[in-house]
Amino acid sequence: MTAALDVQGLTTRFATRGDPVTAVNDVSFSVQKGRILGLVGESGSGKSVTGFSVMGLIDAPGEISAGKVLVDGNDLRALSDEHMRKMRGNKVAMVFQDPMMTLNPVLRVGDQMAMAVRVHRKMSKTAALEESRAALEAVGIPSPEERLQAYPHQLSGGMRQRVAIAMALLHSPSVIIADEATTALDVSIQGQILAEVRDLADTTGAAIVWITHDLAVVSSLADDICVMYAGKIVERGTAQQVIDHPRHPYTKGLLDSIPALHEPGKHLPQIPGSTPQLSRLPQGCPFRPRCPRASDICKTVPPADTVDGQTVLCHHPLERT
C-alpha cells in the first residue's frame, strides 16, 4: 500500500559564515492515509524545519540538499516551482502555529477562503463560498454563514485556528502538516480542536503530521510517533509503543517531565542541560552530554535498533517492560 506521505533521507542545511548547519539530518518517515503522525521534540530539534522542508518552503540561506518527499507516490522535490505552487494547498497543506500567518487581517474570512478555492479550481464565487461554508462547518464552527462575513480580528484565537484548519481542508488534500497548531490556545479549546482533527483524519482519510513539543498532546491524538533530537529522528514507533515503552533515554526524559504523570507537590524530573547548538554537536550521539546512560561508546554514532517495529538510535536503549 502506497503511503500518502513518504519522506526518505530528507536533509536540510543552512549556510553560515562557517560550515553549513544541518537542521534536518537524513530524516525518513511515512504516514498512511487516515493516520496521524506525531513529530515530537524540544525547541530546536528540527521539527518545524522538517515540516517546512516537506512543503518546499525553505528559502536561502537554507537548502534542501538531499532526500525525497513522496505524496501519493509523486516526488515533490522533482517538481518545478510552478507545479509545486499548484500542489500546495491542493495535495499538501499546512496549518501554522499562528493563524494570522494564514489569514489576511484586512479581508473577510469568506473572501479569503473563496479566493483560496478559486486559485486551484474554476468556479463562481457563490460556489466557492458554499464550499467555504461547508469547510467551516466541518471543523465545528457554529453559524458558519456569519463567520464568513467576519474579519479575523473579530474571531477568538480558537476560532481563527479552526478557520486556518478549514482552509487547509478546502481541496481535500492528501497530506496536512500542522506546526504547533494548538500551542497558543487554552486547554479546553485545545482539547476540542484535537478531537476535531482526529475526526477529520478518520472521515476524510487525510494523512496528518502533527508537530509539537508536547508528548501529552500526541499521546491522545497520534497513531504513530517520531521523536526528534538535534535534527535526527532518535525513536519511532506506534503511539502506544513510544508512550508505554520508551526505549531512548531522551524519550523517557520527555515523558518523565510531563506534570500530569506525577503526584502534585513532588519534584518534577527534568532533562539536564539544553539542546546543543547544531553548529557544535558533540561527537557521536548528540544526546550524550545530557544522557544518564552515556558511556565512552556513545562517542561513536549510535546504531539503529529495531524491536517489533519500534526503532531507536542508541547504544544503550531501555529495555521494553
TrEMBL record:
CDD domains according to UniProt: ABC_NikE_OppD_transporters
Subcellular localization(s) per the UniProt record: Cell inner membrane
Domain ABC transporter: 5-255
Any single GO CC term annotated in Swiss-Prot or TrEMBL for this entry: plasma membrane
Domain of life of the source: Bacteria
Gene3D superfamilies: P-loop containing nucleotide triphosphate hydrolases
UniProt key word Transport: yes
GO molecular function: ATP binding; ATP hydrolysis activity
Bilayer topology: Peripheral membrane protein
Extent of the signal sequence: none
Keyword Transferase included in the entry's annotation: no
GO biological process: peptide transport; transmembrane transport
Keywords for the protein's UniProt record, in alphabetical order: ATP-binding, Cell membrane, Membrane, Nucleotide-binding, Transport
InterPro entries the record matches: AAA+_ATPase, ABC_Ni/Peptide_Import, ABC_transporter-like_ATP-bd, ABC_transporter-like_CS, Oligopep_ABC_C, P-loop_NTPase
UniProt cross-references to PANTHER family, sorted A to Z: DIPEPTIDE TRANSPORT ATP-BINDING PROTEIN DPPD, OLIGOPEPTIDE TRANSPORT ATP-BINDING PROTEIN APPD
The family this protein is said to belong to: Belongs to the ABC transporter superfamily.
UniProt name for this protein: Peptide/nickel transport system ATP-binding protein
